[in-house]
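Internal tracking record. Fields below are filled automatically when a chain is submitted to the structure queue. Please do not edit lines marked as system-generated. If the sequence contains nonstandard residues, flag them in the REMARKS field before resubmitting.
Queue: standard
Priority: normal
Entity type: single polypeptide chain
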Amino acid sequence: MNDRYSRQILFAPIGEQGQARLAESRVVIIGCGALGAVSAETLARAGVGHLVIVDRDFVEESNLQRQIIFEESDALNRLPKAVAGAARLARVNSDIQIEPIVTDVNFENVEEIIAGANVVIDGTDNFETRFLINDACLKTKTPWIYGAAVGSYGLTMTIVPGSSPCLRCVLEAMPEPGSGPTCDTAGVIMPIVTTIASIQAAEAMKLLTGQTDELHRSLIRIDLWDFEFNRLDLSSFNDEDRCPACSKGEFEFLRGAGRQVTTTLCGRNAVQIARTGVGALNFAALAERLKPAGEVAFNDFLLRFRVDGYDITVFRDARSIIRGTTDPAVARGLYARYIGA
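SYSTEM-GENERATED OUTPUT FOLLOWS
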């Protein structure tokens, strides 16, 4: 018996055979923030043979409260999260392969990124990427595990193409920008992060060891502060018959539908982000959510928000100009953190 995994092997549902399957598995974690960090460390310690960690961002001091694989030195050196995370996990388990990818996941590269994966785990911060992952995983028949956490509540759902509803079956359409809280506007506590990510990791281990009958087959919502647990049973959910992705194989997000179009504005140290098909924003509601994070003001035509040296101007159609950077990936990250979706 391998002493490193001896206690896990003693757990009857895994055993020697399950441990061997974990060692032969490839898991892609898209987003190495709070949820992704916990999932990555859990699966590295569990002995998953090949972990791919994908993230577009770098480590900041505010990450350290909940993103468990990062240290103060990572924030001081502004290391890419994927690189810092891979280095940490290599120190945790030198027997496995850890592949960092520093990139912005989009409709042009997502299929290449998930190629060969046995499971994809969602650690992202926006629904554009989640709907893109959903399309790519349905097309390639790759199981994936959705997760989200903000404040003290979180959601998770496991999608197995061909045998469960997909994310679009349940949510139908992407939320409008600015329509919901984010960690940077409403905060987040680490206990909900570890709870949701632990469920994601457990579901991944069930899939990797071939125990699909043990999946929870639900959309789970947990609020740890109010101590509420809600479970929507999806085992008999039949709306997939109306889902364009599930029923018709129409993977419109892989064709770029709903994507953010970024344009670097020459000579202005700014990036414009635009999205099609978005209704008029409610500036009053968005301003209320942004107030705890920075300086915000709006009129009938635009909303202006200042935070951490960046100046974000948002128009009624959700188009935004982000001043203080010329890097589209940085601009998209700021948009996801503060405007949402």
